[in-house]
Amino acid sequence: MDPNYQLPNAALLKEQAEWLAPARARLLRGAGVAHRRRILDLGAGYGAVTGELVRRGGGMVVALDRELFALRQISTGHQTGGDALCLPFAAASFDLVFCQCVLLWVGDVVTAVAEIHRTLQPGGVLVALEPDYGGMIENPPEIVTHDLWLAALRRAGAEPLIGRMLPGLLAQQGFQVQTRLLDELTPPSPLRFEFLRTLPLTEEETAALHHIEQSPTAPQVVHLPFMLVTAVR
Q1: Is the dihedral of CA 98, 104, 110, 111 positive or negative?
Q2: Is residue 150 in a domain?
C-alpha cells in the first residue's frame, strides 16, 4: 500500500460491511464461528466487522490494523497495531482469521498468506472476502468505471485482481480452499463514486468520473465480483 493512502472514512467502510453482511454471515456460519475460541480480525480498520465477530464468536477477538487512529475507535474486542506481512503473534495463535477487502491492500500477498498460515492452528480457518475489479460488470457503456478503478488502485499500491489470485495462492501454501462468488445483483450505490474518490485519481480521471456521474439514471447494472473464500489449514 502507498504510505500516503488514507483509509476511507468509517461511514463508507460501514456501508461496505453492511452490503457484504449476508455473504459474510454465511461464510462465518459455515466456518463454525460460534465454536472458534481465538479469532483475528485482520485489517480491522475502524471495526466495521469486529463487533459482529465478538457477538458471533465463541471466545476472544483480536482486531489488528496498521492504522492506530482507526483502532482507537474500536470499543470491543482487543486491539493490536501490526502489519499483515509480519503478524505480531506466535505460531498457532488463532483458530479463525477473518479479512475483508484487506489482502487487496497488503502488497506482498504471498508473505501475508504465509503469515496467516503460520498463525493459524491446525484445523484453523481463514474466511476472506476479496474483490476482483478486473471482472466488473457495468452497463450502459456511459457509466463504465472499470479502467479508472484498475489504474487508481494500482497507483495506490493495491492488487485489483486479488480475488482471482487468492484461491491459487492459498492452495500453494497448503490450505484446503473452497471458493464461492457473490451471486446477488443489487442496485448500484452512488457511494461507489465516493470510494473511487479516496484513490489517487489524475485530473483526467477525475473529469471522467464527473462525466460518468452526470450520465442519465436509466436502468443500470453495476456488479463487482467478490471471491468468498474459506481456507482450512
Answers
A1: negative
A2: no
Number of domains in the chain: 1
Compute the half-sphere exposure of residue 191: CA atoms within 13 Å on the CB side of its CA.
Answer: 14
94 is a domain residue: yes
The dihedrals phi and psi of 38, each to the nearest 5 degrees, come to -140, 110
Do the beta carbons of residue 66 and residue 82 sit within 8 Å? yes
Paired sense of beta strands 226-232 and 176-181, if any:
antiparallel
Predicted local confidence at residue 1, as pLDDT: 55
Cell reading at 28: 462465518
Q: Report the C-alpha gap between 166 and 180 in whole angstroms.
A: 12
* HSE-up (13 A, CA, CB side) for residue 87: 26
Q: Quick one: CA dihedral 160, 166, 168, 172, positive or negative?
A: positive
* H helix count then E strand count, the chain: 9, 9
Predicted confidence (pLDDT) per residue in 183-193, tens digit = 888 888 888 99
Q: Would the pTM count as exceeding 0.85?
A: yes
In a domain, 89, yes or no: yes
Give percent of the chain above pLDDT 90: 82
- Look at residue 102 and tell me if it is in a domain: yes
CATH number at residue 110: 3.40.50.150
Other Cβ atoms closer than 10 A to 219: 7
Give the domain range for residue 119: 10-131+159-184+222-232
**pLDDT tens by residue, 31-85:** 999 999 999 999 999 999 999 999 999 899 999 999 999 999 999 989 999 999 9
